[in-house]
Amino acid sequence: MNANSNTIGFIGAGNMAQAIIRGLLEAGHPAKQIAVANPSNDKLEILRALNTDIYTTQSNTDVAEKSDVVVLATKPQRIAQVAAEIAGTRPQLVMSVAAGITLATIEAELAAGTAVVRNMPNQPATVGLGMSGLVANSATDDTAKLVASYIGEASGEVVWLEKESLIDAITAISGSGPAYFYLLLEMLEAGAVEFGFSPAVARKLALQTGLGATTLAREDGGELVELRRRVTSPGGTTEAAIKSLEAHDIRATFQRAFTAARDRATELGKK
Ligand SMILES: NC(=O)c1ccc[n+]([C@@H]2O[C@H](COP(=O)([O-])OP(=O)(O)OC[C@H]3O[C@@H](n4cnc5c(N)ncnc54)[C@H](OP(=O)(O)O)[C@@H]3O)[C@@H](O)[C@H]2O)c1
Predict the structure, then answer these.
(1) End-to-end CA separation in angstroms for the chain
(2) Which atom of ligand 1 is nearest to the CA of 126?
(3) Which of 36, 48, 151, 185 lies 20 to 30 Å from 14 when distance is taken between CA atoms?
(4) Domain spans, the chain
(5) Closest CA to 119 of 74, 77, 160
(6) Per CATH, is 3-166 categorized as 3.40.930.10?
(7) pLDDT bucket at 2, cuts 50 / 70 / 90
(8) How far apart are CA 184 and CA 177, in angstroms?
(9) What was the pLDDT predicted at 3?
(10) 46 C-alpha vs ligand 1 centroid, how far in Å?
């Protein structure tokens, strides 16, 4: 199966569906092979404005009948209901992007043997820089996995998880991760204002430093600790800052935060 030749259907046309669709179009996926269902027309109009060849409708089953693969992109509380609606229609692969909804919950609504993939993306998918964790049920073969990777990679990078429980860990690290970075950026910005910079300059200092550090870390490819060592001269300014952070147990504080997020994801998944 050539992923590019698949018709990819979306149930729900909100932020995440729009992000994936934009990514697919940018990657060269034919707009004629994208179909989208959403109850209200305003979101469908946004997609039609993006490309008039995208098929839009208010009928979930209409999209499912036209599609080789269906992406469930409604809020989590609606996933079981929309999975039940499309049960018995054409798609052999169903991907859900909903947080906290298990493979078993989705499988239970679909025809036996349907390949189901859970995708936990994150917010930067909306600018094509997402990080998605994927996990598949036992009915998903290698070809279906390639198609799922193709959809995930349209909005960033993907990692495949060996077991579903790791989705909660992905949620804690890359799912919630953007918020940890925003918090650090907020603190840099506030620190700069405290030192007398204007809000505009403070924001520039924070954002460019964040972007520069992440880009350099990626391009360099070496160990993060080594990059940090290179800006931390013995007895210098950075060392003074890092010592102050370490004295306040910064690593253990963050590890506790990651664990709290992972445990909360597990708890929400059980509800
Ligand atoms: N946004 C993120 O950063 C992010 C990150 C990770 C995972 N996710 C997951 O992605 C999913 C979607 O999130 P989102 O941020 O894209 O939410 P969203 O913008 O609210 O989109 C949900 C869409 O589903 C539509 N919908 C509601 N009921 C429906 C039904 N019965 N059939 C078909 N469509 C229906 C809604 O339409 P109306 O507005 O017209 O009612 C809305 O357009 C969630 O499950 C979330 O857990 C999102």
Answers:
(1) 37
(2) 3
(3) 185
(4) 3-166, 177-270
(5) 160
(6) no
(7) low
(8) 11
(9) 72
(10) 15
C-alpha 76 – ligand 1 centre gap (Å): 8
**Which tens digit of pLDDT belongs to each residue from 90-108?**
878 999 999 989 999 999 9
The position carrying tokens 């060592």 is 229
Rounded to an integer, what distance in angstroms lies between the CA atom of residue 263 and that of residue 260?
Answer: 5
Determine which residue's CA is closest to atom 46 belonging to ligand 1: 98
Nearest Cα neighbor of 80 from 94, 65, 67, 59 is: 94
CA angle, 75 as apex, 146 and 143 as ends, to 5°? 10
User: In one letter, which amino acid is 51?
Assistant: N
116 with 110: CB under 8 angstroms?
A: yes
Residue nearest atom 43 of ligand 1, based on CA coordinates: 14
Ligand 1 contact, 38 CB (< 6 A): yes
Atom 3 (ligand 1): residue with closest C-alpha? 123
Q: Give residue 214's identity as a one-letter amino acid code.
A: T
Q: What is the pTM of this model?
A: 0.91
Domain 177-270 has CATH 1.10.3730.10: yes
DSSP 96: E
Distance of CA 54 to CAs 12, 108, 229, 245, Å?
A: 14, 30, 50, 51
Q: How many CB atoms lie within 10 A of CB 144?
A: 22
Q: Using the atom order of ligand 1, give the atom closest to the CA of residue 11.
A: 33
Pocket test for ligand 1, best of 11, 20, 38 (most atoms within 8 A of CB): 38
Pull the structure tokens for residue 140.
């998903």
Residue 155 Cβ contacting ligand 1 at under 6 Å: no
